[in-house]
Sequence to fold (970 residues):
Amino acid sequence: MKVNVFKRGLLRSRFLRLIMVTAGLTALLGLQTPVSLLSSAIAITTSDDISLSQHGQSPFYLTSAQQLLQQGREHYRAEQFTQAANLWLEAEKRFSIQRDGLNQVLALNNLALAYRQLGQWSEAESAIGKSLEILQNINPLTTEGLRLYGQALNTQGSLYLTQGHTQKALEIWEQTADIYTQANYSEGVVKSLLNQTHALRRLGFLLESRSRLSQVEALIEAQDNISLKVALTRTVGDHQRLLGEFKASQASLDKSLQLAEEFAVDKELAATQLSVGNTLHVRAQQQETFARRTRNKTDQAKADILYQQALDSYAAISVQAPLLVQTQALLNQFDISLHRKGWSRANSIQTSLLSKLDALPSGRTSAFIHMRLARLLMDKCTNACLAEITIPQQQIYSLLWKTKQQAEAIRDPVAVSYALGYLGHLYEIEEQYVDAQKLTEAALKQGHHQPSLIYQWEWQLGRIENKLEFTRERVLSHYDVAFQKVQAVRNDLLYVGPDIQFFFRDRIEPLYREYISLLLPKEEIAISDNTAQLLRAQTVIDDLRVAELESFLACGLIAPDDNIQRTTIQDVANTDKTTAIIYPIILPDEPGGDRIEVLLQLPDKAPDQTIQRYSPKVSQTGLSHTQNTDSPEQRSSKVKAKLEQFRHELERTYNYVLSQPGQRLANEIYDWLIRPAEEQGWLESIDTLVFVLDGAFRNVPMAALYDQQTKQFLIEKYAIAVTFGDLAIPQAPPAQSFSIFTGGLSSASSLPIAPEKSITSNSNAPESTMYFHALAFVEDELEAIQNIMGETENLLNLEFKKSSVQTKMRSSTHNIIHFATHGVFGFTRDDTYLLVAASEQPTENRAEQKGQAIEVEKMDLNDFDRLLRTRNQTPLELLVLSACETATGDSREVLGIAGLAVQSGARSTVASLWSINDFSTAELIKDFYEQLVNPDISKAKALQQAQVNLIRQNIRPSYWAPYLLVGDWR
Fold:
């Protein structure tokens, strides 16, 4: 038995996982897999690499139709999909004439797989539809018939998923699992459940997705066949890596490796070692990106260790391993060596790599390996690199031309499209734009049915034709198509790596920003139909914000399971005559800098006045020397540097006014975002500003911007809210009556940290402990809320644990939840959490009364989702998190606030950018709730009044500024 349709000694499936995950996703789109391949890796077919059954026929008695079936298999395994399809099409006709229903179904199922590989979706659907129609007329179905039925349904599900019909795909795969259970085919059940995890993830049901994985693990554990157990456990580990579940992936692969070594399952060992290296590789990338943001040498040292462990895992693969596995391992080593500037190692590896490339059998996998090497050299090998390694630059051209010829020989349009597109990109890099245009147009023609190909080549054509000075309208038309097509594949792209930032930041986000930059050209460029383009830019910005949030959450935004009618932020703002939405966005500028564009949506205006635009100038002066960094990316962004310095000045303020540098920056940012609109009179009737913030702007509290002319902070002039794109909110007006559930930790606390076990080493490091200081004013805060809001349910210190919170949520009808506890909005969804008392800690323990630290545990986004799903259907009006903070002050971490808001389903969320352990927190919260109970006061105005009250008491800005209202401001 084989693990899935693409595994034959881990040929294609493992390679696809490899190119989606391990290449350093910055290089890979680069080598982004086409939708057909991506879906194949995600939707695990159970065709047994196209079924081998001959229904009892001996090879000596093969009919001509069965010979065609067998020949098709051979071509399919050689990745010659067009030839395989032609043979199976003829076999199906002959089986139809012979009235051999099951073999006809077999031929049709295989035919659909070949069509899917070729991106011929309508033909694949037709083949599967015909297969299912035949099966429905065979009654009863034998065990073999049931397996064929499951295979057909499984393929149908993957076709639905590819076309965006995720709910249909899920329902089909649930039916498939039932069919395979009837057929007593546990391997098929496992793969059907894995497919369901992908569909559930795309729909936003992360907990249900993980539940399916738990079922898979239980089924695998019951397997007696050790070889199959090793392979399936590895498949789960690879699957978890694609979902960004690294700890789980590490555990699964560790288990697969141990089984392979313990029972000497040599045929599976190399494949598992490759997977181990792949997980270590993406973990190293994630850790390195984190280290770059923290600028911490210890964090970088951790990344270096992970890179070395990945190299060791790849190097451990035996020379007796399958050639494709060896080649992939060498290619990954070469990738890491280039990235780390290990020229000597790179030269040593490339000698072995080139010799193995020449020995690879002709087929799609070979073509993609050649292309990936070429793309690595294009993306990662600078002039300095080319001077150090012995691969001449001309070899990049020859690699791609050879691949194109190979792909043409096997009549594989997908591979041909990639080869031509990458050649076009190479000519683009070399500034040979006319040739680049011709090659890219040829690539687009070959990939005309595949959204992931179309979006790449349309984007590439847009860039090239912009350089060739084609009309702005023509260039925009390419970007418009690319933008539309990327929507079709974006959900699939949630599954290509650990923290999608690697892929999203380098291969998706630039498309959005370049498109917005074209829609909002510099002022000296005349624009026809200006309003339509401004509205289009607004749509793209909103979609970028939602895409960023989905990438942070690593799943689609869940559709609420209730009967509440919803509308959008924009629609609400249009009918709210005193609210305006401000969209500041940072766009690339020449040479190597940034420019700021601001869109302003105004309510109740004529169509050509609904949206306004202004382009503030960014001064090149006023930066502290402390803002100089070693990162070229950071050096190039004056905007980001100024925003970071302002945040730094704001946090360290020790009196009620900003420091002189802080005040200067606060006024400069005010001049960017607010003053142009005020000077035009656009804000005369506005009392609430809703910000849709971009990048580093997210990390700066808008409340603290300062108007030097009026000597007022922004919060003194306008109520303020923040939102992350045009998200859906309840259409009905906010609730006027409230029932509140509060909880928190006031005592000092200690969080045990278990040592991380490495796949490649048996570390016996002791458990460590993280300590958190007491939040002395939490009890005053919660008492004040009770006094204002009346009777509340409250859990404090040892009572504030997961099980108690869950019980309260299940049994109550609260529409406000207020938690005052340490928490972090972190770098990834797994680093975003609140602290609660440890579950196993006995309630009678009075540790906090003895001055000892309470033992605590994390309540992360997954727990939060689980707890809030236990609530009854009372809509959650407000979630307040009063003592949390961002982990490193990075703009990405602010997405954690939005992540918690989305996971909770709350209409509005109040949270802080940094923790404030001061009496002013209790004072601000008390004032907020006193205003909130007034039915004539919006949430945004209630928070505004609470912040202004502190300003009037001369409380320092670092205490009142970091509070944000996220979501519905009403």
In short: Confidence is low (pLDDT under 50) at residues 1-61, 495-502, 625-636.
